[in-house]
Amino acid sequence: MLRTTARNAFSKSNVASQRFSAGGSRGLKVLAILYKGGSAAKEESRLLGTVENELGLRPWLESQGHEYLVSDDKEGSGSFFQKHIQDADILITTPFHPGYVTPEVFKKAKNLKLCVTAGVGSDHIDLHTAVENKVQVLEVTGSNVTSVAEHVLMNMLLLVRNYTPAHEMIERGDWNVSQVARNAFDLEGKVIGTIGAGRIGYRVLQRLVPFAPKELLYYDYNPLSPDLESAVNARRIDTVEELVSKCDVVTVNAPLHDGTRNLVNADLLSKFKPGAWLVNTARGAICDKFAVADALRSGQLRGYAGDVWDVQPAPKDHPWRTMKNPLGGGNGMVPHYSGTTLDAQARYAAGTKEILENYFKGQAQNPANVIVGDGKWATKAYGQRK
Q1: Residues 316, 329: one domain?
Q2: Mind telling me the catalytic residues?
Q3: How far apart, in Å, are the Cα atoms of 122 and each of 39, 96, 210?
Q4: 56: domain range?
Q5: pLDDT in tens, 178-219
C-alpha cells in the first residue's frame, strides 16, 4: 500500500539504466502548469516553480527549438490547461498547483508522451491511464525529502508545544501563561510513529532520534533493512490500526494511491490514542477531511497539522481552515509549501531539466525518477504491484 524507498535511497547500487526516447527531439510543444508568484516571484528570482520564473527553462527550451507555454490557469473546460493539453507533447506540473490529468484529459491529449512532475508526487495524474496510453511519467525523486522532513518535525513541535495559540495570544495583546501551558507537552518520552518509511518517512525518524522519544514506530508494507532500523532504533508494526493505537504522535509519509486514499477515516481515527497529534504533509486525500475535523473538535485528536489538501488551492470553506480542538487550538494548517522551499525549487528545477534533456536525447533516465515508462509501471511507490 505504501511507498517504501528508503532502502534504495541509501544505496548507490541502484543505477540500472532505463531508456526513453522522444522519437524526434525538436519542435515539441511543452506545456507547464505552475503556480502564480506575483510580486514575490518578481522580487525573488529563486522562486523557480512560478509562472513568472518558469523553472528557468525558457531560454534553454527555445534554444532547442521547442515551444514552451506556461500558465497557472487550470480549472474548467475553457482553461489554458484544457486548451493546450490537446496538442501538447510534454506536460510539466507541480504538486503545489497541479494540473489534474484525468482519463478524460488523456482522451483529449492526443500527442502527450511525457508528464514530468517538478517535485515529488504524481497522484494528480491518472497513472493507470498513463500506463494504458503509454505516456511516460517521471518526477524529481529526492528533490523535496529534506524540506518535507524538516516541515514534519516543525509541525510536531508546534502542535505538541501548543505554539500557534500562544503566538495568537501575543498578537491579540494578551498574556495568560496557564491558558497556553495547559495543553503544551514535550516530544521527549512520547511514542511517535510514521505511516510510511520511505525517503521522507525515514528522514523524519532520523531527525526524531535526538529528541529521545519513548519509542519510534513505523508501518510500511516493505520493512526497512535491519541496519536502517537499528540506526534509528525503530520498530515495524504489522498494521496501521495497531500503529495508531500505540502512538502519541502520528505522521503520514506515504504517496496517494488507491490503497491510501481516505486511509485515515473515521474508523481509523477512533483507534487513535485519545488526544493524539496527527501530522500529514503527504497528500490531503489520504485523510478524510470531515472525519479529521470532527476528531479535532471532539478532542479525539489534540491537533492536526500539515500543508496538503484534498483539492489545491483549497476552497475558502474547507473545514481544515478553521477547525479547532475544544481548547481553541490544535490547527497547524498552511498552504502546500513544505516541498517548495527555495532550496527544493533549485533541486526540482534542475531535475526537471535533466529529465527533459535525457528525453530529448534518448538517454537513460535515473530509474528512481521513473513512475511509468514504456507502457508499464516502473515503481511500486504508488501501491504494491507484481
Answers
A1: yes
A2: 144, 283, 312, 336
A3: 28, 11, 33
A4: 8-144+340-377
A5: 999 999 999 999 999 999 999 999 999 999 999 999 999 999
